[in-house]
């Protein structure tokens, strides 16, 4: 993660940006940023609707942190603008009440104690001191409130950064790789917390370069590569676009396809090996259609699509890993990013992961204790920050 340099907010608006004011939510309109002759972000447009958890995905160096920095007024855009509820971030009257941000968990002063660190922010944004203790308890750091931050692990610092971001009871959370360093329990807690935050009307933009981390919690995705927008989609649409296929070996594939088509299931194609590939119909239903049409089935198999491979295909080309075959027995679980030059609807996949791998957290406070009714306390912006960034 590259920390953005603090610079005066916002550059000259991109003349291509229409003058209409965006509505509720976050709107990124034509953001670009060049560093010397390197274009880190190029004419980026996307929205984060209110109440959503939007995953912001891209490989290392694709421009995520730079984009978030521009959105929050910490990096000056070369062009474009970003709005929160229709207002440029730097024009918000009480930014810490609107947007809480976690950009670099390591930036907190190592000599400060966690509680003192938060109390300084409480004073800066004008919220009562008690909020510091409450937020430490919320993120599971109550027991180490008086320890120095320098003794914290990266995961503990991530929790502290989130606590800092929450001090102002914001409606929006902008999080740059907040799961970095978190253990599985911490990941599960973060996921539960963000879901509860969104269920209560909050809005989350969360960056990562790991789709598996995001797909368990996000309902929308914005994917960038090399500073360009690659996809902006709901998880539902992405899954629909890359639905599993059922392959059936049948005595009369054409007759079965006709029977399926008569019921509106037109996405069925006879393969070169004679099998019928059907999208959008379960294997059980296909068997029922076959029985009705008096077609005998000799075998059925389901090809699941791994969304991570789809993501790798979309973002291929940047820092592609060496072919797995060069390191027998030590290769990554998935093909390297360079393997699929273009997104293919059905990359070779074995199993779609079911997000059940983490048990629900016990030792951390229940995320439900952050209801919407807590929001809306008056406060002031922290100095020079898009919400407290620790
Ligand atoms: N202050 C800077 N000066 C020069 N180049 C920069 C600066 N900040 C970022 N860059 C470059 O811009 C590109 C995008 O960097 P950025 O940190 O935004 O990517 P990222 O997607 O957040 O990466 P990661 O996932 O590794 O954190 C990189 O090539 C980076 O080297």
UniProtKB/TrEMBL annotation:
Bias-annotated ranges (Pro residues): 1-16
Biased composition (Low complexity): 325-374
Region of interest: Disordered: 1-23, 325-390
Record-level Gene Ontology MF annotations: ATP binding
Domain of life: Bacteria
SMART domains: AAA
Keyword terms, alphabetized: ATP-binding, Nucleotide-binding, Transport
Record bears the keyword Transit peptide: no
PROSITE patterns linked to this entry: ABC_TRANSPORTER_1, ABC_TRANSPORTER_2
SUPFAM superfamilies for this protein: P-loop containing nucleoside triphosphate hydrolases
Domain ABC transporter intervals: 26-251
Family classification: Belongs to the ABC transporter superfamily.
Protein name: ABC-2 type transport system ATP-binding protein
Native source organism of the sequence: Rhodococcus rhodochrous J3
Lineage: Bacteria, Bacillati, Actinomycetota, Actinomycetes, Mycobacteriales
């Amino acid at each position: 993660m590259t920390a953005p340099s603090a610079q005066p907010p916002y550059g000259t608006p991109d003349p291509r940006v229409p003058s209409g004011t965006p509505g509720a939510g976050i709107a990124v309109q034509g953001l670009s940023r060049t560093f010397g002759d390197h274009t880190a972000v190029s004419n980026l447009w996307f929205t984060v609707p209110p109440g959503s958890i939007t995953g912001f995905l891209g490989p290392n160096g694709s421009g995520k942190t730079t984009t978030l920095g521009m959105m929050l007024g910490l990096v000056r855009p070369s062009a474009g603008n970003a709005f929160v509820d229709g207002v440029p971030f730097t024009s918000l009257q009480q930014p810490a009440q609107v947007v809480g941000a976690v950009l670099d968990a390591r930036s907190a002063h190592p000599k400060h104690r966690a509680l003192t660190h938060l109390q300084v922010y409480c004073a800066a944004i004008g919220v009562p001191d008690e909020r510091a203790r409450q937020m430490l308890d919320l993120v599971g750091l109550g027991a180490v409130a008086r320890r120095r931050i320098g003794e914290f692990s990266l995961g503990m610092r991530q929790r502290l950064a989130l606590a800092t971001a929450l001090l102002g009871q914001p409606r929006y959370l902008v999080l740059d790789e907040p799961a970095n360093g978190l253990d599985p329990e911490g990941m599960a807690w973060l996921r539960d917390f963000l879901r509860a935050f969104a269920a209560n009307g909050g809005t989350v933009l969360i960056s990562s370069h790991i789709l598996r981390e995001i797909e368990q919690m996000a309902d929308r995705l914005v994917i960038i590569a090399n500073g360009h927008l690659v996809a902006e989609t709901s998880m539902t649409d992405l899954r629909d676009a890359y639905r599993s296929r059922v392959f059936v070996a049948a005595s009369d594939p054409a007759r079965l396809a006709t029977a399926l088509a008569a019921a509106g299931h037109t996405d069925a194609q006879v393969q070169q090996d004679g099998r019928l590939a059907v999208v959008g119909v379960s294997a059980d239903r296909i068997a029922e259609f076959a029985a009705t049409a008096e077609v005998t089935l000799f075998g059925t198999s389901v090809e699941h699509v791994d969304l991570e491979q789809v993501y790798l295909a979309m973002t291929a080309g940047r820092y592609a890993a060496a072919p797995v075959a060069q390191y027998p027995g030590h290769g990554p679980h998935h093909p390297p990013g360079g393997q699929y030059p273009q997104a293919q609807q059905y990359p070779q996949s074995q199993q779609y992961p079911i997000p059940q791998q983490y048990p629900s957290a016990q030792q951390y406070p229940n995320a439900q204790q952050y209801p919407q009714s807590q929001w809306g306390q008056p406060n002031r912006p922290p100095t020079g920050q898009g919400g407290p960034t620790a």
